[in-house]
């Protein structure tokens, strides 16, 4: 899920996302595979390729490079896409995500600004930028971006889930649970999501209560069961002078229903 070395502030956000039970905040680079427009590079048709089609090819290449771990190559391909078609807001947004991941918040902001000018109503870009603000703990900015994304696409699952995380961070539990439900979470998964946010804030007793509710509602939930176990262990450790927050951080497994890679900004279109 991580691309590059996030700074400490970003890492804290990523810890929360490793165990969310619903579609996460940013999707990964997507499945590998040849983009349909790659055939446009065949020698007999190259002269007929438009700037946008040529940019499509570069973006498809960037997706594959990103998934394979060649981040420098992916960044170069996104930049090549912009050289071929400077109007590609999706390429700017993806460069923002890569900058975000390596802790370059200034670079991320610059790319997001350009993406917003090129595609001001794109819910994917708004969602990704909202998550960037979330990682910076800029809750009000995150909420504003995510709500705007949902105005453009009320069924955008990642935006609902991101908004749930943001509301949870601001203490709005009911609002967070409602957004997790809109993202596709069932009652147990929504409570596990909220519990993890509370646990990462050190509110382990509250997290344990929610994990217990989730486990009761869905006995087969690995996230709820393991979260409850980790909370009990953290509370026991606290009694002996241990750190409850640190005990929970690495003890809760990722969910089985959703791929944690969905927690980064989508290089494919859609959720």
UniProtKB/TrEMBL annotation:
Annotated SUPFAM superfamilies: TPR-like
Region feature Disordered, mapped onto this chain: 246-271
Record keywords, A-Z: TPR repeat
Gene3D superfamilies the UniProt entry points to: Tetratricopeptide repeat domain (1.25.40.10)
Presence of keyword DNA repair: no
SMART domains referenced in this protein's UniProt entry, alphabetically: TPR
Protein name listed in UniProt: Tetratricopeptide repeat protein
Organism of provenance: Paludisphaera mucosa
Upper lineage: Bacteria, Pseudomonadati, Planctomycetota, Planctomycetia, Isosphaerales
């Amino acid at each position: 899920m991580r691309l590059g070395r996030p700074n400490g502030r970003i890492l804290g956000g990523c810890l929360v996302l490793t165990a969310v039970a619903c579609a996460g905040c940013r999707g990964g680079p997507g499945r590998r595979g040849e983009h349909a427009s790659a055939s446009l590079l065949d020698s007999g048709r190259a002269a007929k390729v438009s700037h946008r089609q040529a940019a499509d090819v570069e973006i498809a290449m960037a997706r594959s490079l990103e998934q394979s771990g060649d981040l420098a190559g992916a960044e170069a391909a996104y930049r090549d896409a912009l050289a071929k078609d400077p109007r590609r807001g999706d390429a700017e947004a993806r460069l923002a995500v890569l900058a975000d991941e390596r802790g370059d918040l200034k670079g991320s902001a610059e790319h997001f600004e350009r993406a917003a000018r090129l595609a001001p109503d794109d819910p994917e870009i708004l969602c990704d930028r909202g998550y960037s603000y979330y990682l910076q703990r800029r809750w009000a900015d995150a909420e504003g971006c995510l709500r705007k994304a949902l105005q453009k696409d009320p069924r955008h699952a990642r935006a609902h889930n991101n908004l749930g995380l943001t509301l949870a961070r601001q203490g709005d539990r009911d609002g967070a649970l409602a957004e997790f439900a809109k993202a596709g979470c069932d009652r147990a998964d929504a409570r596990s999501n909220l519990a993890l946010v509370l646990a990462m804030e050190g509110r382990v007793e509250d997290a344990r209560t929610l994990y217990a509710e989730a486990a009761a509602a869905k006995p087969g939930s690995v996230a709820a069961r393991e979260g409850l176990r980790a909370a009990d262990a953290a509370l026991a450790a606290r009694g002996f002078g241990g750190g409850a927050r640190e005990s929970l951080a690495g003890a809760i497994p990722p969910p089985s229903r959703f791929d944690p890679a969905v927690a980064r900004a989508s290089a494919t279109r859609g959720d």
